Recover the amino acids of this structure.
């Protein structure tokens, strides 16, 4: 699988994905911080996310609920640590998986930093995800964020 947005080496402790998008900084910031906008593109593939909750304030909660399968229900939850409108957002990230037998697994909390920088009439978006405890986790996050950036690119092009 091609990972065109991945800037870090697979397996690196900090996963970095980035790219230039056909949208203003204001539109990109809104795409990352408004639940309605996020529902139009967020996730590793189209339809992967079924609900998003955003409380955009420092200390506020963000939650992405993924489509359930017969083997699991999963979500990602976090808390906003920093919000600089049209410049940067920082939030925690913890993946929660619930199996049909009720077993729940929660990954240790990691941190996501997303920055937005004007590049002419485009916006450069850079995401750094750090503190992921395992190699498998870093590999999964690399693929997931690359897919999300692909979805975001399609959204900006009016294809999503």
């Amino acid at each position: 699988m091609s990972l065109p947005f991945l800037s870090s080496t697979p397996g690196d402790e900090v996963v970095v994905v980035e790219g230039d998008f056909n949208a203003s900084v204001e539109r990109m910031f809104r795409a990352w911080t408004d639940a309605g906008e996020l529902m139009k593109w967020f996730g590793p593939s189209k339809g992967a996310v079924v609900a998003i909750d955003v409380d955009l304030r420092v200390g506020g909660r963000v939650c992405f609920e993924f489509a359930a399968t017969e083997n699991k229900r999963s979500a990602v939850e976090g808390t906003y640590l920093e919000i600089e409108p049209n410049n940067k957002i920082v939030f925690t990230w913890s993946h929660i998986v619930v199996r049909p037998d009720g077993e729940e697994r929660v990954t240790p909390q990691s941190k996501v930093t997303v920055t937005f920088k004007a590049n002419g009439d485009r916006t450069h978006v850079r995401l750094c995800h750090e503190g992921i405890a395992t190699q498998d986790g870093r590999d999964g996050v690399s693929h997931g964020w690359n897919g999300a950036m692909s979805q975001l690119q399609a959204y900006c092009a009016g294809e999503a």
Summary: The helical segments are 25-33, 35-39, 135-156.
